[in-house]
Design a protein that fits this description.
Blueprint lengths: L7 H9 L14 H12 L3 H12 L8 E3 L12 H15 L3 E6 L3 E2 L4 E4 L13 H16 L5 E5 L4 H10 L10 E5 L2 E3 L1 E2 L6 E3 L2 E2 L1 E3 L5 H7 L2 H8 L3 E6 L10 H9 L4 E7 L8 E6 L4 E4 L6 H4 L12 E10 H7 L9 E10 L6 E10 L11 E5 L2 H4 L12 H18 L10 E4 L21 E4 L1
The structure holds uridine-diphosphate-N-acetylgalactosamine.
Uridine-diphosphate-N-acetylgalactosamine (UD2) binds next to strand 16.
């Protein structure tokens, strides 16, 4: 057994949990390296990890005693009284400076073949702006439109924090004041190999993965972000994912409904295009709690279940757009670590050997943000349209790819132009409108001229 003054208890525990292989290279480590390994191991919750590994060996099951959750359908005619009332309420709320934007951006662009923060991936159809630039420019536009700063909270992870900060600094925060942009990393959790052992990522460190977007609620507290919001009088946080360039980040209608209905969490739903679409389903359990069941957990019979009119029973899909009340996050994280369940993903993981890395089978553990939804005293869901708010960039090609996202963006901008009665020359194949010009059709100046070129950027 290795020895190190002051760490006897820890070393004993590591041996008891049969994880002492982490000391394999102990004799080759410098004093500093030994200390850093021990410090890292100090933060590991060995008992919880053992419990998580046990779960990987059992057949995981979820409570399937649920039906579809009710939602507020999007009216055919947007002059609908309730819709307009919500919009007006929401606009006043934004103008009062009570809304902040929050993006979860702890992931890398690996699936796109890009080894950097996913948010720094450049993809807009004409200008090739990064996802972060698109989001930041929208937030700048909201600030201009509503005459108030909309603070931008960005959750990164240890894997990409430094590169994300650099992306914002190099680009001068895309026109935002840096005092209104808050970047903070989420927590990390060790991964395990197929036998439940910690995995070495070097001679003196263990492999960890970000703890999932469900870790964001705890990270908001531990990073001081919640405190900052309170200081600024923010009561509503608009949560979204970094990979969706058409997200309507600050939506007065959703904000209005959220407050009028006194919800703690409000979410956007779109009608699934087909039963197996890779979005979560909104459900209501027998005891009245509402939440989301991920597509991979939805039992097949429910996935394909149909209503009498032939529509899918579980049609409303979650696109990971939520409004959280600040007080709700404060309440559920008041014990500091919000105990949401961990979901297990079987992954190939790079394990250190002195001859180089080898890929092994392992388990990564992640929390999902939507598991916090059932903790809300009141939640609501409103329908939105795919073509207006959902163009995810997940894959290098095919479904939810860069190409499909660019097409959706261009189509959306063209629809804004038409809605405004602006002439769109036939020659225009691809159109991009800078968020600084418009985040909604009504922002476009009537009488605007669009050049008859194949690719047009309005900026
Ligand atoms: C998510 C949803 C799915 C649907 C879809 C819409 C889950 C489990 N699934 O699927 O139901 O709504 O999105 O696009 O939520 N992230 C972090 N830290 C982490 C892990 C993820 O910040 O530790 C961020 C990541 O940068 C990205 C977002 O969370 O912005 C989504 O992550 P994903 O790509 O793993 O989610 P996906 O596409 O499987």
């Amino acid at each position: 057994m290795v020895q190190y003054a002051g760490y006897d208890e820890l070393i004993k525990k590591i041996c008891e949990f049969k994880q002492d292989h982490v000391f394999k290279y102990w004799n080759e480590l410098t004093e500093g390296e030994r200390k850093s390994l021990l410090k890292e191991l100090m933060s590991v919750d060995f008992a919880s990890l053992a419990g998580l590994f046990k779960e990987t060996q059992a057949e995981a099951g979820i409570d399937v005693d649920f039906g579809p959750a009710p939602f507020i359908p999007r009216p055919k005619n947007l002059s609908d009284t309730a819709w307009q009332k919500a919009k007006a309420f929401g606009e006043d709320h934004i103008k009062a400076g009570k809304v902040a934007a929050f993006v979860v951006a702890g992931g890398q662009g690996s699936r796109l073949g890009y080894e950097g923060p996913k948010g720094a991936y450049t993809m807009s159809p004409v200008k090739n702006k990064s996802l972060f630039q698109i989001h930041a420019e929208k937030i700048k536009k909201y600030s201009m439109k509503y005459g108030v700063a909309v603070p931008f909270f960005i959750m990164t992870s240890d894997v990409n924090h430094a590169a994300t900060v650099a992306h914002f600094e190099e680009n001068e925060y895309f026109g935002l004041h840096n005092k209104d942009v808050f970047l903070f990393p989420q927590n990390m959790i060790p991964s395990l190999d197929a036998n439940g052992k910690l995995i070495l990522s070097s001679k003196n460190s263990i492999f960890k993965n970000p703890d999932g977007h469900g870790g964001s609620l705890t990270a908001l507290r531990t990073s001081g972000a919640l405190e900052e919001m309170k200081k600024r009088g923010i009561d509503t946080l608009s949560y979204f994912q970094v990979d969706n360039p058409t997200v309507n980040i600050v939506d007065p209608v959703l904000i209005g409904y959220h407050h009028i209905e006194q919800a703690e969490v409000s979410s956007k739903a779109l009608i699934k295009a087909y039963p197996e679409e890779k979005v979560g389903s909104f459900v209501r359990w027998k005891d009245g709690r509402e939440g989301v069941v991920e597509y991979s957990d939805l039992p097949k019979e429910k996935m394909f279940e149909k209503n009498a009119d032939g529509s899918l029973t579980y049609a409303p899909g979650s696109i990971a757009i939520h409004l959280f009340s600040r007080e709700y996050i404060e309440r559920i994280t008041s014990g500091r670590e919000l105990s949401l369940p961990f979901h297990v993903a079987r992954k190939k993981i790079k394990s250190y050997t002195p001859e180089g890395f080898i890929e092994i089978d392992g388990f990564k553990f992640e929390k999902f943000v939507f598991d916090a939804l059932p903790l809300a005293k009141k939640s609501l869901i409103i329908e939105c349209l795919r073509e207006e708010e959902f163009a995810p960039v997940k894959n290098a090609s095919g479904i939810d790819s860069v190409e499909s996202s660019q097409q959706l963006m261009s189509d959306l901008y063209k629809s804004w132009v038409r809605a405004r009665g602006i002439v769109l020359p036939d020659a225009v194949k691809v159109l991009e409108i800078s968020p600084i010009v418009a985040v909604a059709p009504e922002d476009l100046p009537v009488g605007m001229k669009i050049p008859a070129e194949e690719k047009v950027y309005i900026g």
